[in-house]
Amino acid sequence: MSIMKQIEALYTQRGVRARELRQAGEKVIGYFCCFVPEEIITALGLIPFRIQGSQREPIDEADTLLEPMACPFARSCFNMALKGQYEFLDGFVAPHSCDTIERMYHIWRSNTPSPFNHLINVPHMMGPSSAEFYKNELHYFAGCLETFAGRKLDLEKLRQAVRLYNRRRALLRELYALRKAVPPRVSGTEITKVLVAGMGIPAAEHIDVVRAFIDEVQQRPAPRPDGLPRIFLWGNEIDDIAFIELVESCGAHVVMDDLCTGTRFFWEDVPETDDPFDGLVQKYLCTHCPRSLVPQAGGRADDLENRFGYIREFAAQWKADGAIFYIVRYCDTCELEGPDLKEYLTQQKLPVLMIEDDYSTTTMGQLRTRIQAFLEMIA
Amino acid sequence: MPFAGIDIGSTMTKVVIADDQEAVLAAHIGPTGVEHRHLALKVMDETVLSAGLSFEALDFIVATGYGRINVPFADKQLTEITCHARGVRALFASARMIIDIGGQDSKGIKLDGDGKVSDFVMNDKCAAGTGRFLEVIAETLGIDLAAMGDIALAADGIVQISNICTVFAEHEVTSRLAEGADVGRIAAGLHQAIATRVVNMTRRLGIEKEVVVTGGGAKNNGLVKAIEAQVGFAVLTPPEPFITGALGAALAGMDLFRRGIKPQRPRKREDVTFYS
Amino acid sequence: MEATQQVKTTAVKGTETAREVRALVKNIYKSAHEAKANGRKVAYMMVASHYDEILRAMDIVPLPTENYAGLCAAKRDMDRFLHKAEADGYSQVLCSYARIGLGFDSLRKELGRIPDNSPDGGMPLPDMMIGSSAVCDPRFKWYQATSRYLEVPTFAIDVVAPPPQADLNQVRDHYIAYQRAQFQGLIDFLEMQTGKQMDPERLWEAIRLGDRAWQLWYDIDRLRVAVPSPMPSQDHFSIMVAGHYYSGTQTAVDFYQKLYDEVKHKAENKIGVTAEEKYRILYGGGLPPWHTLWIFNYFESFGAVFAIENVYRGFDPVQVPSHVQDPVDYLAWRAFLRATRYHDQARTRSGSPAVEKLLGLIADYAIDGVVFHACRSCRATTIGQTHIKSELGKHCDLPMMQLVSDMVDLRDYSEAQWKAQIGAFMDALAARARRA
């Protein structure tokens, strides 16, 4: 099977590999967002599985249990669980990412409990005491998971897992580097497939997939210059190609992102510290999800620079011509962050299109006009 | 050198043929209908005929509006945002803002000093603040949509309507009617509610003079007055608000043509086919 | 927060003491203006963050921005602030408290002064903003966004609570240690801002007053088990002002003492809210509809009295171990104990502390029906209502109803729909009464 076909299969038939592994006697631990260290799960000989929603299926059953003003990504995930599509999970781990995920955890646990259920409290603040607390939360999580797995966490295995995941991170960065070319060597749609494919399989297998994909991309003939605008994407959960495909089909290249399903989960390495937990805390406490509060740094201009300087660098290095914000509706922290980031990027002369949407492919066509108009505007 | 613009909106299809002096040679409006692709061609034919031209003589055709994708004879598709901006630029050099109230959506467009789009906003997937909203409410009030603006202006007061959600507003209007409120005052309240919503949305762009109101909404005096009350100064309306987008499409086609972009294939009326 | 009654459907006999709240509310903003004039420090803050006593001990004048939003809605003067925030790019589904706050600050900046005729004179410019992660996400994020309109030192603390299934013996230490560090961080910040050192004795004094007021408040609520109900939920949404905005002051203690005496008198003499109390309702959760508080009176016109509620309540009193000698340690312990008050009970039955608390209220207050209010822009108090409702249904057989609107945004409210829903709910209550 060609690598693209393999990725396509992993992308469309999510959970198939996890089910296979489970049949073979492995235990699969489902988790949400970018705050749960997969390294700990892996080091205990368990298979981490990042829970995804489905933008292509209507949310129906969840409506009777979870209010419609909750984040539709979370509702979609829960809807799938109610329909038995996550019956293969031996464990269910939610970080306290935000109000919705935390509240949904309890509802999920009550309605479709897995054999193992756990909520990790993730500090919203950043600082030494927050790091210390989070480390304790991770120790408590690891302890509970040890009991479930029936084995002790071996720190050497944890160090190995850190190195394994860092290898994957390095590869994904290498893949992203191919997007710097003008035009990019690889489309945003393909990237999304590669990333989503990796969410449901062991990291070691994903590494092989990404490696093979990079090799394939490098053999492609260099694309001809097309003059199409290059887009930087900011938002929360995009685990379906629909939106990115829409943007690209309107005549643009999606070249870089700051998304929960994109750079946020892999861009920074876990430092290889003596106590591996220290490294895990350093990485996982400081993802760029707006639910984490960056402490105020001076006046407004300095503070914006401190909060968003990395985005300016992303946009510059990947030569973005415009930024599109794709916010899955009802995300309070994104909705508070968006206008600040828009102000900052506009100051940097990067035009911004801010979109709030419902996490559903069926209504996405309505966004076409807005995206096209934006592309016409920045052309 | 004739250029055509066709704007396929949710209810009306508009065609404008303009020359290279930006003068309108002919304009036609027809219903969009379910079979809008065939009707589009019909309106196009009529316009070509009134301009005394042939279809083959058109130098460039731009399609816009929500049905723009299904126009097989267009050389280019552009969004109504770009086209409205272009049309308004031709009509009012001083324009800096456009508030367009169409049948299915409403939008705010900001123009830079050259009349180019510098930012825009569109309403969400909801009828509030659109022509459709007014239609629904006119029906609830039992009045003619076309007369609604004048009825509102003639009212000696206003009934506040707090709900802008179409379904809720219908409820609210029914309750107010049951309480015996005056139809004119309710209509005035509705216009105020829509104007508040649309102007508020446009405020995201920072409102600057001059403001031009386009689309079907610009034909409703009551609504235009309500918008003026919200922005705090008089707004401009094109003589034919419906065709601003189509005019802009024609002129955008002229711009492209002048930049050296040519139709990809020779234009033949009999070659126009539809795949459905 | 007081109700501006749009339609007075029935004469409600609430408490006399609750009428004094209007002055307390006005005084919040008046004191803040005076403090600015006298060079005292004013802070935007979030109620129920467990840090009130620290602010009092440091002479910081608190300005509760969320509650200003509620005040605007009760005065039906919210639209200009909501619209302004939306014009500035904030989503119409963002927390409407935050939208009002952002809109107010934006308008004030644009005008260079407090917007004309702002309710109760408006909020003066704060010297600092102090958010917290207690209760919901916007409460720590909102002030960061506000820095767009006013550049003042901004700080926030985490307030953490373990999930009910956590083994408290395993997590207690790190939760309390973190909470302590967060409070200490706030103290350090305030010391920097004021140039003054925290006096532990003053902190103890504020804690003593805070605990005393909340104990009295709790005792008042216990008196409300009386039939007929001596104090309705409408009064609760007023009298909470003392507990939440005057926490750590003698004012709150005095107020609740007076209210306690009145409610006790009413309970003992069976002086009820309505002439005929047919049904006793529990306000099960969700922020109150500040825009339409008269709706409670509408229920009363059917003989249905809101006997007790589960929002903006004081925390139940907790017993901090006597070995805790340091006031900051005490605050951390107290926050932890408050947050885990129903955890043990939850583990043995429903798994949900909220469900346990409500079941307790249903039993103690002889409740006939439960009403929830889903607020479209409040995730924290709305998500889970449906679940709680269905869990409650497993343990009791009561009519329950979820009304939908928003805490302040009137655009999400439909009077016609509510009245129809309330009518059906009354039918259900009557049917249940006939069965009994």
Question: What would you note in describing this structure?
Answer:
The complex is a heterotrimer of chains A (379), B (276) and C (436). Chain A is of the alpha/beta class and 379 residues long. Chain A is built from 15 helices and 8 strands. With 276 residues, chain B is α/β, with parallel strands linked by helices. In chain B, the strands form 2 sheets. A 5-stranded mixed beta sheet of chain B has the order 3-2-1-4-5. Chain B has a 4-stranded mixed beta sheet with strand order 8-7-6-9. In chain B, helix 3 runs parallel beside helix 5 (166-178) and helix 3 (131-141) packs antiparallel against helix 6. In chain B, 53% of the residues are buried. Chain C is α/β, with parallel strands linked by helices and 436 residues long. In chain C, helix 4 packs across helix 5. The longest helix of chain C is centred in the middle third of the chain and has 27 residues, at 168-194. Chain C is globular and about 65 Å long. Residues 1-11 of chain C have low confidence and may be disordered. The chains are: A alpha/beta (379), B alpha/beta (276), C alpha/beta (436).
Tell me the β content of chain C. 5-15%
Oligomeric state of the chains in view: heterotrimer
Give the N-to-C terminal Cα separation of chain C.
Answer: 37 Å
Major sheet characteristics of chain A: 4 strands, parallel
The helix count of chain A comes to 15
The helix content of chain C, as a percent range, equals 40-55%
- The averaged pLDDT of chain C comes out at 95
Write down the secondary-structure element order of chain A: HHEHEHEHEHHHHEHEHHHEHEH
Beta-strand percentage range of chain A: 5-15%
Number of helices of chain C: 17
Largest interface between protein chains, with number of residues from each side: A-C, 55 and 59 residues
Rg of chain C, Cα atoms, Å:
21 Å
What characteristic shape of chain A results from the CA principal axes?
globular
**Widest sheet: strand ordering of chain C:** 2-1-3-4
Strand order of the largest sheet of chain A: 2-1-3-4
Q: Please tell me what the overall shape of chain C is.
A: globular
Output mean pLDDT of chain A. Answer: 96
Number of domains of chain C: 1
What share of residues of chain A is helical?
40-55%
Low-confidence region ranges of chain A:
none
How many domain regions of chain A? 2
